[in-house]
Amino acid sequence: MRRLTVFSFVLLLTCVACPAAFAAGSPQKNILMLHSFGRDFKPWSEYAKVVRTELNRQSPWPVNIIEHSLLSALHGDENPEGSFVGYLRALFGREPPDIILSMGAPAAGFVQRQRQQLFATTPMVFTAVEQRRVQRSSLTENDAVVAVAHDFPAIVDNILRILPDTKTIAVVIGGSPNERFWLGEMRREFTPFAHRVSFEWYNDRSFVEILKQAAASPPHTAIYWHSLNIDAAGVVHASETSLSDLYAVANAPIFTFDGSFFGQEIVGGPMHSVLNLGRETASVVVRVLGGEKAGNIKVPASGFAAPIYDWRQLQRWGISESRLPPGSEVLFREPSAWQKYRWEISAVAAVMLLQAGLITWLIYEHRRRHAAELATREAMSELTQMNRVSGAGELSASIAHEVNQPLAAIALNASAALNWLKAKTPDLEEARDALVRVVSESHRAGDIVTNLRALFRKDAQQPGTVEINKVILSVLALVRIELEKHDIEVHTQLDHGLPAMAGNEVQLQQVVLNLVMNAKDAMQSAPTQRELRVQSQRSADGRVQVSIEDSGSGISPSDVKRIFQPMFTTKAHGMGMGLSICRSIVEAHHGTIWAEARTGVGSAFRFSLPANG
After folding, report:
1. Is 485 in the same domain as 397?
2. I need a labelling partner for 555 at 20 to 30 A (CA). Which of 113, 189, 476, 606 fits?
3. Is residue 299 part of a domain?
4. Do residues 557 and 516 make contact, with C-beta atoms less than 8 angstroms apart?
């Protein structure tokens, strides 16, 4: 990258946000974020990302963050500062920002030097700056500091702890004014380790030379990456690729002081936490925006967080986890092939061992299941027949009454016809009407007998077209006397516009009959009015739905899910097969059946069946 000139600095300043963002009366809070070098310079760029995210999360007001860069920090040339100050004053002359947030030491120094020129009463927050770089004597009551504290000896201690054979530590640092300051600090603080390890300083080399030196590092060398904003050749390194380029050629492990560099190339150790400092900074900014005096907010400088390490780098350089300091966290751990595919490997082995026996068992099971299905169908047919016949005893009185009515009517009408014919002047018209009634009643008796025989016949009819209302009415006619005997009042609400269905009429009669008789049994002990409600309707999904509700003793909610299971019954002398057979018949017609425990008294049974159209 070419050297940055004053011309390029001025050109970049022209590509900034328009001051129209600060429209008068806007409810948002306007924040001027001032970068030391630019938005792409680590570690400050990573802190800025977290601060932006946290401000949007923590702030109760909308925030408008306008960002500018102090490019003069790369070369220490303060001449453009006057122009930059004038530009900022012109940009925010009508409406100053609500707060100024400086990122890094150069930006903090610029703000403090130009405090009176740059909005003397505007609150300022200095962050992502080491405590030694803050001019405490120049702070005002409108300034708050969220600083960090470097601990360079802790970095060397970490390297020597996990790599005790280290002989040389190569320090990668650039030549900007800020980096020259830290070069002097590190030389001073590394002095106590001079008897244990030698230090090689890369501040006087171009990045190309640094890469060559890192590729040819002797054994037992460790690399400490501090920063590289501008190398000895004057080349600016603003992108995030410099560390990746170094890692690609280095034959020694790389360490650093800041967590923003951690995640791919760095072994790890005690470092500053980007997340913690970013959250703390956003919290202070929100407090100031909320009216708290900036100078009254005292935040202790944050030191290194608990050490973290990259498992991949530990493996690459053969560093045992037993050497890590207590409380360390190892990230990016990759499981072994057995840990990753343990169940798959076990499953494949089990399948291979059991394959032959499984195939043999499947053949046997197929034959056994076929035989079991045949036996099950036969048993179900027998149970269905038993269920039909079991109702014959209870319905005997109703059957006798139903058949006796048309027979009595036949005898009465035949006698009347004879009387009309015996008269001196036979009344043929009256005799004919009486004989017509005889024929009608005989047909009625025949229909009753036919329906009863079909209901209790073992060989069920073949599927055909069924009208559900006809099924319901035939069953209610069959049990009418039985219901009257128990003082049960029947209410029907039948939708006469229902379509026909494909099914077995006799089997569906059996379902309705079972549900009606169960309702009758449930209401025998009811002391109040006994009501049976039978309804047919078309559901929202186009199916035909039948509901049978009673005012009897009801169903316990715990029994609703079990009531259709075979051998489950709530009756003292019940067999537990009636509702199970009902479910089998309904499901054979591609329908569903369910029970509902109604609030108050009574219960409801419903089933739905697919319609033809």
Report:
1. no
2. 476
3. no
4. no
pLDDT for 22: 40
The pLDDT mean for the chain works out to: 82
pLDDT top residue among 268 and 377: 268
Among 124, 148, 172, residue at a domain's last position: 148
Which residues lie below 8 Å from residue 332, measured CB to CB, with a gap of 6+? Answer: 310, 311, 312
Report d(CA 610, CA 589) in Å as an integer. Answer: 8
Rg (CA), the chain: 47
Tell me which residue has tokens 């025998």: 524
Alpha helices (runs of H) in 190-240, residue ranges in sequence order:
207-215
Q: What pLDDT does residue 189 have? A: 96
pLDDT band at 376 (very low <50, low <70, confident <90, very high): low
DSSP summary character for residue 415: H
Same-domain check for residues 428 and 470? no
Report the pLDDT value the prediction gives residue 506, as an integer from 0 to 100.
79
Q: Answer whether residue 420 is part of any domain.
A: yes
Residue 469 is assigned to a structural domain of this protein: yes
Give the C-alpha separation, 248 to 243, whole Å.
9
Residue 308 pairs in a beta bridge with 269, 329
CB 532 within 8 A of CB 483: yes
213-219: long-range contacts, CB 8 A cutoff, minimum separation 24 = 213/170, 214/170, 214/246, 214/249, 214/250, 214/251, 214/252, 215/249, 215/250, 215/251, 216/251, 217/168, 217/170, 217/250, 217/251, 217/252, 218/167, 218/168
Does residue 141 sit in the same domain as residue 235?
Answer: no
- C-alpha distances (whole Å) from 41 to each of 36, 74, 79, 147 are 9, 11, 22, 18
Query: Can you give the CATH number for the domain in which 505 is found?
Result: 3.30.565.10
pLDDT winner (highest mean) among 117-121, 276-280, 370-374: 276-280
Residue 11's CATH number: 3.40.50.2300
In a domain, 515, yes or no: yes
474 shares its domain with 577: yes
Q: Residue 303 half-sphere exposure, CB side, CA atoms within 13 Å?
A: 9
- Considering only CA atoms, which of 590, 581, 575, 589 is closest in space to residue 380? 581
Mean pLDDT, range 339-347, rounded to an integer: 81
Give the position of tokens 């004597």.
137
Report the phi/psi class of residue 150: left, alpha or beta, with left for phi > 0 and alpha for psi in -120 to 50.
beta
How many other CB atoms sit within 10 Å of the CB of residue 238? Answer: 19
pLDDT computed for residue 441 by the predictor? 64
Of 77, 76, 80, 54, nearest to 65 (Cα)? 54
Angle between helix 79-91 and helix 6-13 axes, rounded to 10 deg:
10
Boundary of a domain, candidates 425, 459, 493? 459
**Residue 10 pLDDT greater than 50, yes or no:** no
The reply to whether 169 and 313 lie within a common domain is yes
Domain total of the chain: 5
Return d(Cα 556, Cα 5) in angstroms, integer. 87
What gap in Å lies between CA 569 and CA 563, rounded to an integer?
7
Q: Are residues 444 and 494 in the same domain?
A: no
Q: Are residues 138 and 168 in the same domain?
A: no
Q: Which two tokens stand for residue 249?
A: 């050629």
Q: 184 and 85 in one domain?
A: no
Tell me if residue 384 falls in helix, strand or coil: helix
pTM: 0.54
Task: Name which of 11, 29, 24, 19 is nearest 69 in CA terms.
Answer: 11
